[in-house]
Every structure is written in structure tokens, then in C-alpha cells.
Amino acid sequence: MKLICAVLVTVACASACSPAEEATTASETVTATRIVTLAPNLTELVFAAGAADLLVGVSAYSDFPPAAKDLPVVSDAFTVDQERLALLKPDLLLAWKSGTPAHVVDELRAAGFNVEAVTTRGLDDVPAALLRIGELSGHDAHAVVAAENFRQSIDEIRQQYLGVSEVSVFYQISTRPLYTINGEHFIGEILSLCGGRNIFADLSALAPSVSVEAVIDRNPEVLLAPSDSGELPFTDWQRWDGLAANRLGNHFVVSAAEIARATPRLLVAARQVCEVLQVARTNRDAAND
């Protein structure tokens, strides 16, 4: 449930916190010695970039890798404990573009903190974020290797599924309210990578709310959800016998832990998604024989 809350925070911030992208600018490149992260995805990226030795504080829900849970928590999705932050004496705060509210970034800068805003919307942002964190922390060599490994692995997955037959997908973040993702979201990119066609790729919001009627009208061949979106995430869809995903038996759940954040763990998520979409194609072919 924690991960679904994190995704829904992204939904809220994608619309309500977008000024942060305009209000933030890249900080000067100085080598940090004490880093605080203001979002769990950034905590994970710092570890992946090899700079965990510099982390002195993190945000709520920073739970991966397990060592992150031992660090002091200084913030949640919307607020920062500036008193505790001051005691930690960080020389670099990592904020999440379109995740950390603009007013929080402004307040922290006004208080004299050095804030770097990091973008993690799409797959290409993951290696870019790793390289930037490596540059800021003096861990360039480790970050370069991590970034290249991610890029190469994504390319390998893309080549593996190049030319497969397209299968239409509805990705369900939550049931009530009913949320999904558009084509620009990193999950949308993963669907495309695996030969999936996101039925709501055309929507403008990164993580929009949609109606049951809209899903039925677009008639996806696959219903896909993260593992914490509900014990039985597709129960409500069973009443619609004509829905292609129901006829084909294409109901799949993927690990929420891997797919919820734009970090190197998206490689695990991408492989899972590609595997289930391949099963979906097999089910479709069998139904058409």
C-alpha cells in the first residue's frame, strides 16, 4: 500500500507541483560531502551511483536498499523538517522535479540550503540522474558504470522484443479512484519497449484519472497492475464479459517494488512486463486458432 500511495503522490504532484520544474535550476557543480534526499527514488539513485557513504538523511519510505531504512528521515512528500535538517548540516539536498513541491524547494533555498532538482520522468532520465549524482558527489566512475549498464540493458530488452506483435494494455495504478499512466510516464515507456500499446498513451496528464467507460470503450487485450494495487485488482472488471482482456484471460500483476520508481530496478520491472505481455500474445494466438 505504501508504494501505491507513492504513485498517487506522483499523480497529485504531476498536476499540482509542476511549477517546481520552472522554479528550480541546476546548482553549481561542487563536490558534496553530506547529502540529503527528499524522495525515496532519489535515495535509491544515490546508492546506485555509489554515493551512499555521503547520505546523512532521507525522505519517508526510503526503503531500498535495506540500508536506507537506517538513515534519519527528514521529510515526507510535502514537508521537510528544517530543524532536523539543520542538525544534519547537509551541503547538498536532492529534490525531485515534479515531485517535490515548488514552495518547499523555494523555502529550502531561502533558508540557505543548496538544492539540486533531479528529473525522473522517463527511462532516459535514470542514467542521466546517475551521472549527475556521480558528478555532484565525486563518485563519477561508479556512476558512469551504473548508467552505462542501465542503458545497455534497456537496449538489449528493446532488441529482444523488436518486431513482436502489438498488444493493447490498460495499466491500472489503483481501482478507486481509477488511475493509469500516459505514454510519457516511464511505465508507459516500458509498455512500448515490450511491444505493448498503452490505451491511454495519448492523454496529457502523466498519471491521469480515467473512467470505467473509457477503459471499456478502448477495450484492452491486457489488464496489468502493480502488486499492491489491491488483493484482487481486476475483480471489478469481471462483469464485462466482452472486454478483450477477460475473454483472453489476460490479467497480470507485476512487482510494485520494482516498477514504482524510476531507478535501475526498472530493469527488473521491464523484464517482468515483457514476459507477461508475451504470455498475453500466446493467449491471444491460442484464442484465434
**H/I helix tally:** 12
What is the highest CATH level, the class of the largest domain? Alpha Beta
- Shape field: elongated
- Please compute the radius of gyration using only Cα atoms: 20 Å
Please indicate the percent range of residues in DSSP E strands (runs of 2 or more): 5-15%
Regarding quaternary structure, how should these chains be classified? single chain
- Low-confidence spans: pLDDT under 50, at least 5 residues? 1-5, 8-27
Helix content: 40-55%
Mean pLDDT: 90
Number of strands: 9
What are the key terms here?
2 domains; disordered N terminus; alpha/beta; elongated; 44% helix; 289 residues; Rossmann fold
Overview of this protein structure:
This protein has helices at residues 2-16, 19-23, 40-48, 82-88, 102-110, 125-137, 140-160, 186-193, 212-218, 244-248, 256-259, 266-288, and strands spanning 35-37, 55-59, 73-75, 92-96, 115-118, 167-171, 196-198, 222-226, 251-254. The chain has two domains: 2-155, 3-Layer(aba) Sandwich (Rossmann fold), CATH 3.40.50.1980; 163-288, 3-Layer(aba) Sandwich (Rossmann fold), CATH 3.40.50. It has 289 residues and is α/β, with parallel strands linked by helices. The protein is built from twelve helices and nine strands.
Could you write a compact summary of the structure shown?
It is built from 12 helices and 9 strands. The protein is α/β, with parallel strands linked by helices and 289 residues long.
Secondary structure blueprint with pairings:
Layout (H helix, E strand, L loop, with lengths): L1 H15 L2 H5 L11 E3 L2 H9 L6 E5 L13 E3 L6 H7 L3 E5 L5 H9 L4 E4 L6 H13 L2 H21 L6 E5 L14 H8 L2 E3 L13 H7 L3 E5 L17 H5 L2 E4 L1 H4 L6 H23 L1
Parallel strand pairs: 1-2, 1-4, 2-3, 4-5, 6-7, 6-8, 8-9
Helix pairs in contact: 6-7, 7-12
